[in-house]
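### Sample
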Amino acid sequence: MGLDLTSQLPPFEGLLPKWLLLVSVISLANSIQAYTTLHYAARMYNPNPDNTKIPSNLMQYTSPSSKPAPLQPGELPSQVTPLSGRKWGTWTALTGILRLYVAYHINEKAMFELGMWTYGVAWAHYMSEWWVFGTTRWGVPLAGPVFISTGSLVWMFLQREYYLGQ
C-alpha cells in the first residue's frame, strides 16, 4: 500500500481549496528560492527606476537626488539586495503558510477573509510598484503574480457564499 495523496488534499468540494493548496506550496518553494538566489527578484524589479518621479506626498521625505548611480555590467539592481531577498522570502513563507491553513479551513469566515487579504495585499504591492513607484514594468516576471493575485481574489470573492454559507 502506497501513500494516497488524494487523502491529503483539503476535504472540501470544488477546486478553490486545491488551488489555495497549490499556490501555498509554490509560495513555500519561492520562499526557499528567495533565500538562495536573487536572480528571480532581480528580473522583477527595474535596475534603475526613475526616483525623481516619486509620489508627491513622499517629496518631503525623499530627495529627488536619491536616484542610484548607473549599474556596472553584471551588477544586481539596487532594489534587490540579500536583505530584501530574505525579507521577501520571509513574507512569501508567511503568506504561503496562511494560505495553506485557509485551504484546510476554507469554511471558517476569519480564515477565508485572511486568505482574501493575502491576495489583496499582494495585488496592491505589485500594482503600486508598477504604477506608483515605477520599480517594475509589465512583462513575464510581473504577469504571473498579478494574474495569480487578481484571479485568486476574484475567485474567492465569487465563491465566498458557497464556502461560508453567507
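The chain has one domain: 13-46+77-164. This sample (Ergosterol biosynthetic protein 28) is used throughout the tutorial notebook.
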